[in-house]
Amino acid sequence: MGEQPRGAAGKAAKSDKPGKGARSAAGSAASGSAGAARSAGAGQDGSAGAAKTAKAGRSAKPAAPESRLALVRRARRINRELADVYPYAHPELDFRNPFELLVATVLSAQTTDLRVNQTTPALFAAYPTPEDMASADPEELEQLIRPTGFFRAKAKSLLGLSAAIRDRFGGEVPGRLDDLVTLPGVGRKTANVVLGNAFGVPGVTVDTHFGRLVRRWKWTAQEDPEKVEAEVCALFPKSEWTMLSHRIIFHGRRICHARKPACGACPIALLCPAYGEGETDPEKARKLLKYEMGGQPGQRLRPPADYPGKPAAPLGVSG
To answer: Which of 156, 207, 218, 310 is catalytic?
Structure first.
C-alpha cells in the first residue's frame, strides 16, 4: 500500500486497538458463553431456570436513546475527525468554470466521476460554452458522452440546460438554487454541487455515499434525499455544509464501503454505531482501502495541488 496521507496514519494506528464496539462484542461473547454454561447446569431444574430467565428479562432495561445534544456533539466530532483524515477533500470532478462543473455533474449520474473526467476533455474542446453546446448536433454530442452511459437522455439534458442558460440567463450559469433547479436534468443534488464548489454558496450534497453513511451513523433515518439534507443541515453550522459533504463522500469511497466497510482501519470507529458491520481486523481492513488510501490513483485527471494520491489516467490509458 502506498504512503497514507497526513492524518490518516495516526488515525489508522489508533484503530489497531480494539474499539468500544470490539470490546463490547468480546464482552458479550464471554457473557453469552458463561450464560450458556449456567443454563446447561440449570437444566436439572427447568422451572427454576425459566423463572430466573423471565425475571431477568423483566428487569433488563433497553439502552437510553441518544439525546439531541449528544447526537449533535457526536456528529460534529465525526466531522472534525474526518477533516483531520481528509484535509484535501474536494469535488472529484475536473472543471474550470461553473458551466463545466454543471455539465460534469449531470454526466456523473449512474457512472463514476473517473469516467466523466475521462470523457469531458473532448466534450469541452468541442463545446466550451453554453452557446456552443446548445447548437450541437445531437448525434455528435451523444457520441462524445457515450462512455458515461445513458447518453441519449444525458444529451437531451445538456442540450436543454445549455439552451436555457443561453436564452434565460445571458449565457451564464445562474448562482441561485431556485434558478438552477429549473434547468433540464438539474435537481437539488446537482445544484448544491455547483453552488458549493463554483460559487462558494454552502450546501449539502446527498449522493448515495452521503445518504448511506449518515444513516449508518444514525444522524437520520430518512431515505428521501431532501429530508436527509434538511436533518443533516440542522446538525451543523452552514459554513460546514460543503466541506462536510466532501469529507463524507471521500470516506464512503475510501473506507466506509457499502458492502464491506473497512472498520478496522476507520478513524471514527469509536464514534460509529455500526462498528463491526465490516472487517474489524486492522490488517485485513487496510487491504480494503481505496484510491489514495490504498496507494491507487484518484478519480481526477487534474487533482488539486494538495492531493496526496496519483492522478487518474486519460480514457484508454491504464492507470
So the answer is: 207
